[in-house]
Design a protein that fits this description.
The chain is of the alpha/beta class. Helix content is 34%, strand content 17%.
Length: 360
């Protein structure tokens, strides 16, 4: 069996998505499935403004290999050229299933944040036609149907063995909290900064809590302004983009990670971010606003659930969480759990079972 895997070109240095795609492809290959990655490159900037042009990608130049058995597409929003390409492939390869992965759903609120009105209109209009050409949609939510298409439900996965475990730390006076992301409004890091403002400026907190924010992104200017306005420069440190050994060193000094704190802003209440998988694989306890699934009970004590609303994060609660786990070394327990829960060898099984059922 051969899968043509179509995705936007991702930067391996800057993108967690690149790691996910690499992991998915490896998971398919480990199951005996041949995969050819087809990178969909962007078009020139001026073309994006044309009313019936593509949003970013030149779908018309994609050639599907003749020996393909499955077309797998990582969704990049809908527009006329995309739907036209689906129609063309369905006619030419009518016996070949087309599977569309929608990495995040619903995505409308995030789309409003990062895109212009034309892009939003295009996606709303043209996504209505997807059900005519797509056989299944891969989702990382509990939705059984999306855009009129039945789903294959999966969870986000990661290559656990490719994540370097963090070094254990002993209990100390300073608590180091880390977040690593391409920062946007849905990460909700402003909630943590608001909580630190209350802790230091209102409640006169004594414990030294430091937030280390690694990465760039659209929400960063607002967060930096908050820190200056609130006088938190000693307690919130911005590093910009880091990778490789530099990033591993920052992780090694961290006591707690931050998952998503603003998923509710885009209607996302489903536990399963790539970042949470990285924390599990690192062996780093973390904070999330998502409801922790029952199947995470073996390591649930290493996860602090905060309200999924706009309330500031309670830093006193964070300190109590830290003190409960500070004498333990969670690395082995969390990492062993990750291998059975979110390693690509595990999470790809629903997709692989479906492919083998419809192709073989």
């Amino acid at each position: 069996m051969k899968v043509a895997y179509i995705s936007a070109k991702e930067d391996p240095e800057h993108s967690g998505v690149y790691k996910k795609i690499r992991g998915q492809i490896q998971g398919l290959k480990d199951s005996g499935i041949d995969v050819e990655l087809i990178e969909n490159k962007g078009i020139k900037r001026w073309k994006k403004a044309l009313p019936f042009s593509t949003r970013s990608y030149d779908w018309g130049k994609i050639d599907i290999p003749n020996d393909t058995n499955v077309i797998y597409i990582r969704y990049q929003l809908s527009d006329f050229p995309f739907v036209r390409a689906l129609k063309r492939w369905k006619r030419k390869y009518h016996n070949i299933p087309i599977i569309l992965e929608i990495p995040m759903y619903p995505y409308i609120n995030e789309l409003k944040e990062i895109s212009n009105g034309i892009t939003l209109f295009r996606d709303r209009f043209y996504s209505r036609y997807i059900h005519k050409y797509v056989d299944r949609i891969v989702t990382f939510t509990s939705h059984e149907e999306i855009l009129g298409v039945k789903t294959i439900q999966m969870v986000n996965g990661i290559e656990v063995d490719n994540v370097k475990p963090k070094k254990p730390l002993k209990k100390r006076d300073q608590i180091n909290i880390i977040a690593v992301a391409l920062v946007n409004f849905s990460h909700g890091y402003d909630r943590l900064i608001e909580g630190m403002k209350e802790y230091y400026n209102v409640n006169k907190g004594k414990k030294n809590v430091v937030f280390h924010l690694v990465g760039e992104g659209s929400a960063l200017p607002k967060l930096k302004k908050m820190v200056i306005d609130d006088g938190l420069e000693k307690h919130v440190i911005f590093y910009g983009f880091k990778s490789g050994e530099e990033l591993d060193q920052l992780y090694d000094q961290a006591d707690i990670g931050i998952d998503v704190l603003g998923g509710h802003r885009k209607g996302d209440f489903w536990f399963g971010t790539l970042k949470s998988r990285e924390y599990l694989s690192k062996g780093l306890p973390f904070i999330t606003e998502y409801e922790v699934p029952d199947n995470l009970k073996p390591i649930q004590k290493y996860i602090l659930k905060v309200p999924d609303d706009e309330s500031p994060v309670d830093i006193k609660e964070v300190i109590r969480f830290y003190e409960r786990i500070a004498e333990e070394d969670p690395t082995k327990d969390m990492r062993d759990f990750a291998k059975g829960y979110c390693d690509v060898s595990v999470v790809m099984k629903p997709l692989i079972d479906h492919l083998k059922g419809v192709v073989l």
